[in-house]
Amino acid sequence: MSAAPAAPLSSPPLALPSQWRYLPYTVAAGTEQMERDRQLLLNHVAGLIPSTLRFYGWSTPTISLGYHQHHYPDHWNTLIWNGEPVPLVRRPTGGRAVLHQGGLTYAVVTSTVGTNREVAYQKLCQWLIDGFNDLGIPLNFGTNKILRSNKNNPNCFGLATGADLCLLDGTKVIGSAQVWRDSTVLQHGTILLNPDPALFETVFSTSLPRTTFTPWLDMTQTLAHDAKMLRQVLQRAAQQKWGGEWQEVGMEEAIAAEKSE
């Protein structure tokens, strides 16, 4: 059962960087996407790249495990869907397992949010709140409390913490997680849009959380035909929230620039 959302929190101001990079949307295998996020973190720590935002997709349905998550159902190791194996990958961030199918993943790397984890989540989720609000969809943070009955739940979307965003009816729709290196943070997360209910139930042995919130249902119907629209809205919200100078960099150009440094 989804946790009831906490009251909206006002986001503390960001210490804005002068430069941001926006990388193009890519679809690739889970191992490649996770390695890309790790490299962005390391390169920012080393001072090779500015703060960076990117969106991406997964080439096949994939289960990602939190970095410290070592207990999960045995059947995940041999899971087959539509005749193909469902890969398991490990994220560099914490949290619980996410089924990546029918959603949109984002990643932010920056060193502008201090080192308080709870405050950092508030700062780095506000652009998502702003973007969805522009679409007529208000979001709230989840509760910070993890009920004892949910303590061993391996499913990220099986509970909502203060790192997560929920619809007004309590349905969690965005789950985020972080990893830190000194004062630099990588935060990435999944926006649950059009997941396959049968696959979700096969993985987690529970029904997909459903909402009757009409604006969300209307948006996900639209995104089935035009997912680019959501990325554009959220990118604009990030630019407005964080300010600074933004540069859109092609993926090949970004990789080459980082290697040349």
Written account of the structure:
The protein is an alpha+beta fold and 261 residues long. It has a single domain, classed as Bira Bifunctional Protein, Domain 2 (BirA Bifunctional Protein, domain 2), CATH 3.30.930.10. Helices cover 30% and strands 26% of the residues. The chain has 6 helices and 13 strands. The strands form 3 sheets. It has an 8-stranded mixed beta sheet with strand order 9-10-11-12-8-2-1-13, with helices on both faces. A hairpin with a 5-residue loop joins strand 10 (165-166) and strand 11 (172-181). Helix 2 (117-134) crosses helix 5 (228-242). The protein is globular and about 45 Å long. The protein starts with 18 loop residues before the first strand and ends with a helix. The model is unreliable at 1-16 (pLDDT under 50).
